[in-house]
Amino acid sequence: MISRKSLIWATTALAGSLAFAGAASAQSTGTEATELDQVVVTGQRGPRSIDGAIVAETVAKSRASITEEYISTQAPGQTILNSINLLPGVNFTNNDAFGSSGGDLTIRGFDSARISLTQDGVPLNDTGNYAIYSNQQLDPELISRATVNLGTTDVDSPTASATGGTVNYSTRRPEQEFGVILQPSIGETGYRRFFGLVDTGAFGPWGTTAWFSASKTAYDHFIGAGGVDKTQYNARIYQPLGDNGDFLSLTANYNENRNSFIARKTLAQFNAGTAYESGNTLPSALTNINPSNTGNIRGASRFTLRDNLVLTIDPSFQYVLAHGGGTQTMSETDPQLIGNSTAAGVDLNRDGVINGATRVTLFRPNITNTHRYALTSSLIWDINDDNRLRLAYTYDNGRHRQTGQFGYIDANGKPEDPFAGRNGTPINLPDGTILRRRDRLSYAKLNQIAAEYRGNFFNDAISLDLGVRAPYFDRELTNYCYQRDTFNAYCTTQVGTPVAGTDLVTFPASSMNSSAANRYGKPRSFEKKYDAVLPNGGVTWRFADHNSVYASYAEGFSAPRTDDLYDVVDVNPEPERTKSYDLGYRYQAAGLIGSIAAWKTDYSNRIVRTFDEAAGLFLTRNVGDVTLQGFDGQLGWSPFDKFNITGSVTYTDSEVKNNLPNGVVNGVPVFIQTAGNRLVETPEWQYGMRVAYSVGPFDLGLQGKYVGERFSNDINTEVAPDYTTFDLDVRYNLASLGNGGSYIQFNVINLFDEEYLADISTSTTGSASYQLGAPRTAMVTLRASF
Where do we find the motif TonB C-terminal box here (predicted)? Predict the structure, then answer.
């Protein structure tokens, strides 16, 4: 039987290191090596974790983690971002019960584009807009631990965007013995999933180990038409080099997701009680799709150069091909189709006749294709038993191709190809081009150096961490089309009419250019460079057995996103900057782990995208300064054997300091009244709690999350109501089947069928649109482990 009983650290420093090593998680191999030895130095006695839902942290910063013990209790196939939802400071809103339709993450008031997500230290945020795609993450059965840095980064974090913290999860290592896991799941709304894994065990003359896995998931949406069809393949090979912790490792992941979006709702529909009654119609579900092909190869290595000198090197490659659907209805004589040619138009319906009265709906997605190469490395020098110096270098180069080739829709209302004209049949135009909605090429290049010192003083009563990282970020951008505003482009060979006194042009009205008064920036190539020096430091004082306090300071930096720079004219928004302060207390003893932290973040140059009503454009604006502050904490208690209680609390106070610029009318600057308002999507209060109990062959878990009211527009006139959801997990362990790791597990999401609004698509001054929270959903899983 797999027990949830808390593990006890060994009393010796060496044994403590071995007990912790299997659960180590960090931003990179270098950080992992550094922090593992930190446990050896402190040699603290106490539980490693309680129920896997709370972990005894030792670093001098606010951090929270979960382990595979807890992750395995959650819904099979669930995104790892939903599994960290009970941690302090974190709020994840899922788009469905199973995790493969997307969702949204916030930490301490920062949205997902301002949070760094890494897998084994490899950056996963989009290179252009820094978005996190929760439905493309690793199968949870392969994750050994997930760690959240609240408001700070690690010294070698490979990011130019993290002002709000980091999330990192670590892939399991191969087992030393041969083993097979077969895991089918079924559930409501047609949920079907199968996961399989083979561990090779140690083989060959050098004790090489490896595993290979595959999963297949399919289900219908809980509202309206459409659903999810997802396939994932993973593999890892691990080669130890001697017996001192050195190794070589190579891990591969490929994920193919085919899903349609779930229709969003308004607050008025929700309040009227009609939101759950209707959803996608079948035609819109077929064209409003979100296909993605993603994959990565992750290398990791550690080499002991001398007794006190260690080198780590982690290279990686990522591939992304994805889009978010969309359609466009066009006349066969639309000016954009004709371009600079003398043709009458294009036969869009392929009937052999060009007719201006014929209007045809075409598939028109925004497609993104990324090739990304990265390297994170560290040189760690143990000066003596109490002092360590670390130098780190990060390289990250992403080729980001944004296109929008139109494609055809078949007689059943389904795109002929999920990637439209890119992979299927394009719309060829008489001027020799193809019909497209945008056409951009950008390179995002990060070079970062970092240094860190760690020291222990007064018989390890005080630990000091001092670090600095210096990112140098370069964006090379080319726009092959005319640009109307932050989001909308116009791709044509038409000759525009110059606008006097500007570098802009106008075009005759068309289906994608609704007014001849629209002004467009010309195609162009340009480069933007950003750099920063970001100090961070922390100190921990272990003033009594089981008790410690810590204080930390860290600066953050986020370079402007690609869409912030592709504008009508040349724009140069300043990078966002943060200064974060934390003061925390921890108690860690057998059967009891607790922590609480008070924090404050000074946030400057916050960039938002707003609709300029006077100009009729979506533009990038600098809202200026924001102050965030609050406290968060968590507690884990095991009052007796096989019974665990864990909980978290978060209070977040946010204040926007300035009014939002909104253009100029008759020579007078116009502002949107935002000063004194709270940030959107930021609840003041959050609570999380879990109770777990094992009795005989049964493991029982009940967990809940309360999320307070959230403003959904910048002027704070629309509020999403608060909500509370509960999830249930029940496991029956099958000790007689296989190797003792087999079980039947029953999960219920949203046990009491709470109706609530989850993800918010926020607005500046108007009404927002919302993703509905999934209703009560049940599933059952059989895990056969041999």
Answer: 769-786
pLDDT in tens, 420-438: 999 999 999 999 999 999 9
pLDDT, the chain, mean: 89
Separation of alpha carbons 208 and 249, rounded Å: 10
CA–chain centroid gap for 767, Å, is 25
Do β-strands 116-119 and 165-171 pair in parallel, antiparallel, or remain unpaired?
Answer: parallel
Question: What are the two backbone dihedrals, phi and then psi, of residue 456, each rounded to the nearest 5 degrees?
Answer: -125, 135
Which of 604, 637, 640 lies closest to 622 in space, CA to CA?
604
Over residues 696-716, the pLDDT tens digits come to 999 999 999 999 999 999 999
**What is the C-alpha separation between 726 and 749, in angstroms, rounded?**
7
Q: Are 130 and 558 in contact (CB under 8 A)?
A: yes
CA nearest to 112, candidates 759, 591, 549, 771: 759
Tokens of 682: 């930021």
Residue 528 in any domain: the answer is yes
Structural domain count of the chain: 1
pLDDT at 20 over 90: no
CATH at residue 624: 2.40.170.20
Burial of 10 (0-12, 13-18, 19+ CB in 10 A): middle
> Is position 517 within any domain?
no
Q: Contact 470/449 with Cβ under 8 angstroms?
A: yes
Q: What are residue 294's phi and psi, to 5 degrees?
A: -130, 150
Q: How confident is the model at residue 7 (pLDDT cuts 50, 70, 90)?
A: very low
From the list 293, 292, 310, the residue with the least C-alpha distance to 301 is: 310
Looking at residue 27, what is its pLDDT?
63
Q: What are the φ/ψ torsions at residue 269 (nearest 5 degrees)?
A: -65, -40
> What is the span of the domain harbouring residue 774?
13-324+365-480+523-785
Asked if the model's pLDDT at residue 692 lies above 90, the reply is yes
The pLDDT of residue 36: 54
CA atoms within 13 A on the CB side of 224: 25
* Interior/surface letters 610-644, b for 16+ CB within 10 angstroms, e for the rest: bbbeebebbbbbbbbbbebbbbbbbbbebeeeebb
Report angle CA 454, 459, 464 to the nearest 5 degrees: 25
Q: Which residues of 205-243 are buried (b: 16+ CB within 10 A; e: fewer)?
A: eeebbbbbbbbebbbebbbbbbbbebebebbbbbbbeee
| Domain annotation covers residue 346 | no
